[in-house]
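Complex 339.
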Amino acid sequence: MSVTTRRDFLKCASLAAAASFAGLHGRSAHAAEFTLKYANNLPATHPMNIRAKEAAARIASESKGRVDFQVYSNNQLGSDTDMLSQVRSGAIDYFTLSPLILGTLVPAAQITGVGFAFKDYDQVWAALDGALGARVRQEIAKTSVFAFDKIWDNGYRQTTTSTKPIHLPGDLKGIKLRVPMSPIWTSMFQALGASPASINFSEVYSSLQTRVVEGQENPLATITAAKLYEVQKYCSMTNHMWDGFWFLANKQSFARLPKDLQTIVQNAVNDAAMQERTDVAKLNASLMPELKAKGLQFNDVDINAFRSQLTSTGFYADWHKKFGDDAWTALEKYTGKLA
Ligand code: X2X
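Predicted structure with X2X bound:
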């Protein structure tokens, strides 16, 4: 190729550099127009990240390489507290977070985590994909982020300890139990008689390993993915709350995308959420034998005894007052009378 001017030379040099980079890293020589960072707190093996990576590939294909949707699993970009402030500022573009931890920014979002509220998944999805979910997303949208329509699943939470099985609320008395950073989580386990400690998920394994706390609570799929069975001995099937993850988007970042790319991203992510829900429900229903084989000792509990304790200690009455009659009525439309 004959070089006639300095400009031509520089153009040839940059094309040659891009071609060699592409050869080395297997990527197209053309960098994406939009690089989007999605972060979460779950291990790479959890269905959330499996499905998120599939969505990333779908977004790259449907946008013809214009969007590079990057998945940062397992607290790579910081703790939940860090990632929440990053998605609010736009340092990251997307972040999946429990409605209850989001409660530190949007108190009304905690309503979907009221103890023993949803009896089964039919009630959960009717509420979260219905008026209650819409109501919560409306509150979230008053901040610098908004939530995509379809919430991702975490599942029904079970209580594990390294010291003793939990059969009745009285067994929780004085138990140093890790809970996520959320007012309603702390309130509920105080009402049940435990000594809750608010710790980000990024510190849970080490806190259990060093006995800073003796127990925690999570769905079986999350317990398995985070290998918490290595530092816990008992798993009591309390099913004390359903929990999920709102897919939060920074508003300014999303607004910078042309409309066609916004649609591609939202459709791929919402479809991934629906697939992840199926994966997680299947896993939570099937992991007990595997966890038993890893040494976890299981027991069932009398759920009514726990529910009665939340009634008698005024937990339901207190949170009914905090959320207000309107929101509480919107919840009980799906759960039935709670107290
Ligand atoms: O922090 C937890 O326990 C986890 C992983 O379940 C949530 O993100 C709420």
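The chain is about 45% helix and 15% strand.
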